[in-house]
Specification:
Number of helices: 12
Shape: globular
Distance between the termini: 24 Å
Helix content: 40-55%
Structural class: mainly alpha
Radius of gyration: 18 Å
Number of strands: 3
Strand content: under 5%
Strand order of the largest sheet: 1-3-2
Largest sheet: 3 strands, mixed
Low-confidence stretches: none
Amino acid sequence: MSDLSDAFISKLPQKRRSAVHTAYAKAPDYIVAAINQHSDQLNYVRDTKYEQDQFGHFILNEYGMRMKEPCHYSPDKKYIAMHDEMTDAEYADVIQHELGHFIDDVLGRPSTEAAFTQAFANAASRYNANTLEGRRLLNDMLDDAFSTGAAFDRNVTDIISALTLNNPIVVNKFDDENVAYYRHRDAYWNRRNADGTNAGMREKDSFANVFAIETGNYLISTNFVERWFPELSIALRQSVEGA
């Protein structure tokens, strides 16, 4: 059992409560404290449903299959949507990320404030493939990801995706290793607000990814982050601890 509060656990579907308790059993105290403190601002966590149009007809994709709402946190309606067909292990992995988005939102978006954005910019510049040193570090980081197994953590690979904007060196490495590359597409990373300003998707998702990695407390992933982009963990902890 974890130290997650009954108030938070009650927001989850009944069948997932035990799995979430287990997933948070080794989570750092500051992560659990932040979730418990702000759980009253989360309306609920619900299973996704097949999407329907205004007439109640199922919306089909290009292959004629019904589509489900993607897993996400809604900052407007303050809920988390999760796919009901996921295994408990998959569910735990994804909800840790979505709760990162929730905490980022209720704390006033520290992911877009100076401390985290500067940390992100510093890490991204270190792996600038347009420089000889940047390419060397990027290749060293990727070699380490595959040799340690960190490349199989979706939160780790999504941070790499955000930092490098899916640089061909990264994409080709995953192809060569025949490993699935979890990432967001460039159009998502480059999303703009209605007024034309940068929406900060790279920083927002990296915040949620680091939050999930810290939550899981899986040494392969946490140690990888500490080796290759430690400033992101430091900035996240400073944003969340005591907030």
